[in-house]
Specification:
The chain is an alpha/beta fold. The chain has two domains: about 1-155, no CATH class; about 155-258, no CATH class. Helices cover about 45% and strands about 20% of the residues. It contains eleven helices and eight strands. The chain has helices at about 5-15, 30-35, 65-70, 115-120, 130-135, 160-170, 175-190, 195-205, 210-220, 230-235, 245-255; strands at about 20-25, 50-55, 75-80, 90, 100-110, 125-130, 140-145, 150-155. The strands form two sheets. Strands 1, 2, 3, 4, 5 and 6 form a six-stranded mixed beta sheet that branches. A two-stranded antiparallel ribbon has the order 7-8. Helix 7 crosses helix 10 and helix 10 packs across helix 11 (about 245-255). It is globular and about 50 Å long.
C-alpha cells in the first residue's frame, strides 16, 4: 500500500455501507473531483494522506457504528487520554515502515452528539468545529473504482467546498494550513469545468451571514497580485507549465468571487 490514494481506498472499502452517513472532507476532495468527476484534469492536486470524514447529524437508518466496524476489522487505536479507554482515534495501517494514520471524524460545534454517536459510536473522538455545517449543507456523490468494485462516497459540492475554505483559512494560525486551504480553493476554481455554476452560487452566498467573513478574507488576502494570499497560493502551487503569469492568474481567479 505504497501509493497515498491506496490509504483512502482502504478506508472507503472498510467503511462501505456506513458511508451514506459520512462526508469525505479535507484535502482528498479536490483529488476525488479531479480523478473521478472531472476526469480529464492533467494537474493533480497536492493532498495530505490524512483522512477526514464529516458526520451528518441527520443520519439515515443506523445499525452498526463506525467503531464496531473498525474494531471488527482489527484497527488499532490511539487513546486521547492515557488514563481512559475512551474516546479513541481509529488508526489505519499504511505499509510497513510507516506509522498508522488517524481517521478523523468531525461535526459542527452545535451538532447534538447523541445523533453523531449513532453513526460513530460514542467511543470515537469527534471534533466539533465552527462553521462545519456549511460544508455539509450541499453534498454530492462520487463513484470511485476500487479493485473492481465501485464505492460511492459523499463529498461537498464544488462551490460549498471553496466557500468553506475561504472561511476556515482565516481561523487558522499555522501558515502551512492557511496556504493549503487557499491552494485547494484555487485548484477547484482553476480546474473545475463548472466555473459558471460556482460563480452563480457565490452570488447566492452573498445572502449568507458568513459572506461578510469571506468578503473580508478576499479583500485582505487577494486585493492585488502581490497580496499575501496570492503569494501563498503561488508558492504552494509551484512551477506551472501552463499559465505564464501564475501570480496574475491567481489574483484574477479570486477576483471573480467578489
Amino acid at each position: 500500500m505504497n501509493k497515498p490514494e491506496n490509504v483512502l481506498f482502504k478506508a472507503l472499502t472498510d467503511l462501505k455501507g456506513l458511508l451514506p452517513n459520512l462526508v469525505l472532507v479535507g484535502g482528498w476532495v479536490p483529488y476525488v473531483y479531479g480523478q473521478y468527476i472531472w476526469k480529464d484534469v492533467i494537474v493533480q492536486p497536492h493532498h495530505t494522506i490524512d483522512i477526514d470524514f464529516g458526520v451528518r447529524q441527520d443520519p439515515e437508518q443506523t445499525g452498526e457504528t463506525v467503531y464496531e466496524r473498525l474494531t471488527g476489522l482489527g484497527y488499532s487505536e490511539k487513546h486521547v487520554q492515557m488514563d481512559r479507554l475512551f474516546p479513541i482515534v481509529p488508526l489505519i495501517n499504511v505499509h510497513k515502515g510507516m506509522p498508522p494514520l488517524p481517521l478523523e471524524f468531525l461535526c459542527d460545534e452545535k451538532a447534538p452528539l447523541e445523533k453523531i454517536h449513532k453513526v460513530t459510536g460514542k467511543q470515537i473522538k469527534v471534533d466539533q468545529l465552527a462553521y462545519f455545517n456549511i460544508l455539509l449543507s450541499d453534498v454530492t456523490t462520487a463513484k470511485i473504482d476500487v479493485k473492481a468494485t465501485v464505492v460511492e462516497v459523499n463529498i461537498p459540492s464544488e462551490s460549498i467546498f471553496i466557500f468553506h475554505k475561504l472561511i476556515t483559512f482565516q481561523e487558522r494560525k499555522d501558515i502551512q494550513k492557511i496556504a493549503k486551504d487557499i491552494y485547494y480553493a484555487y485548484y477547484m476554481l482553476r480546474f473545475s469545468p463548472n466555473i459558471r455554476t460556482i460563480l452563480a452560487d457565490f452570488k447566492k452566498y452573498h445572502n449568507l451571514p458568513e459572506w461578510q467573513l469571506v468578503a473580508k478574507g478576499l479583500f485582505d488576502h487577494f486585493s492585488a497580485p502581490h497580496s499575501k494570499g496570492v503569494l501563498l497560493v503561488e508558492s504552494e502551487f509551484g512551477a506551472d507549465s501552463i499559465v505564464s503569469n501564475l501570480r496574475q492568474h491567481i489574483f484574477e481567479t479570486f477576483e471573480q468571487l467578489k
